[in-house]
C-alpha cells in the first residue's frame, strides 16, 4: 500500500534475500554474507516491523511510534538476526578485527535514538531547532547519552500538565521566541503548548505567568494516542442581508489543518456552523487515528450521539411530525463516524464550556468568528455589485 517491502519474518532470511533486486554470484568472494549493494533497514518495533529497502519506507514505520527500535544493515543475515534477537554476525566480525561500527546518539532531533549510519542520523538533526547529538564508540554509551536527554527533559518540566516548562524557549542566540512560535516542548500533546494561552483582551498568544503554571492542574491524558480537536461555529449580522456564519476547527498553534472559513449555503445559522465544523474536523482527521472532538454545542453532540437513533427510526421526522432540522449535515457526520467505526477507530465527543478561557475552545472560536467576518465581507461585496448591475443591464438594452 505504501511502497514498503517488509521481510516475510525474522526467520525467513534466505527466502527474503532471494527476492532482492541483485543477488551476488557464488564466486563473488569468500564471504558468506549476502549483500544487496544498498543498506537495509530493520524495524524491530514500529508500525509494521520488518526489513525495508529504503530509509523513507523505514521512517514511515517509526514516525509517531513511541519506543521504536530500528537499525540499518548491509546484509539480510544481520537484519534478520537483529529482528529475531540473535547475535548479529557482523558484530562478531568487528570484535575480531573487522570494521569498527560507530554509534551516533541523537538526544534531540526528529526521531531521537541511536544510529549506526551517519547519513540517517543527519536526517534527524538537519533543520531541527537546537539538535543535540554525539558520536560514541559503543552502543551502551550512546544509549546512556540519549536516555540522559529524556531525564533532563523531564526534570526541566514544571509540575502540572504534560509539556509545562519552567523557562520560556529561546533560540540559539539566547533570544526568547515569540509566544506560539517556538518549538513544542517535550511532552506536549497533539500540537498544544501548555505554556501559552490566548489573551482574551488582545486576542494574542502570551506566555503563562509562573504562578499560573504552578497552579495548573494535570489534565487527564485520556486514551493513549488520542487526537484532540476543538470545533466551534459563529454567526454575525443575524436578521440582516449580511447575515453570515463561520466555521472554526483548531488542531493546534500554527497547524496547517486549522480551518477558518465562511459557512456555505443559504441557511446561515449558528447550529449549521457548529455541525459543519464537526464534519470538517472528522473529514480532515487521519482515518487511522482515534479522535475526541471538543465543542461547546450540546445540540451538535446530541444530534450525532443520541437523537439520531429515533430520527432514523421515524424516517427523519420529529415527534411533532416536523422534518428534522439540519438532516443533511447530521447524516454526513454519521456516515463519517460509521466509516471510522468499520476501521475500529474511535470518534468521541466532549462538551466543553464556551468562553471559559480554555485555550483550544478560544482558538476555535476565534477561527469561527474570522470565518463569519469573511462571509460578511463577501456578501457586502456581492450586494455592492448587485446594486450596479441594473444600471449596466439597462445601458446594454438601450444600445
UniProtKB/TrEMBL annotation:
Signal peptide feature range: none
A GO MF label: nucleic acid binding
Catalytic activities: Endonucleolytic cleavage to 5'-phosphomonoester
PROSITE patterns with a match to the protein in the record: RNASE_H_1 (PS50879)
Biased composition (Low complexity): 11-28
Pfam families referenced in this protein's UniProt entry, alphabetically: Cauli_VI, RNase_H
Swiss-Prot/TrEMBL cofactor(s): Mg(2+)
Composition bias, Polar residues: 1-10
GO biological process, one term: DNA replication, removal of RNA primer
Stored Gene3D superfamilies: Ribonuclease H-like superfamily/Ribonuclease H, Ribonuclease H1, N-terminal domain
EC id: 3.1.26.4
Span list, region Disordered: 1-40, 148-190
Keyword tags: Endonuclease, Hydrolase, Magnesium, Metal-binding, Nuclease
UniProt entry tagged with the keyword Thylakoid: no
Domain annotation RNase H type-1: ranges: 223-373
Uppermost EC category: hydrolase
SUPFAM superfamilies per record: L9 N-domain-like, Ribonuclease H-like
Family (UniProt): Belongs to the RNase H family.
Name of the molecule in the record: ribonuclease H
UniProt source species: Penicillium diatomitis
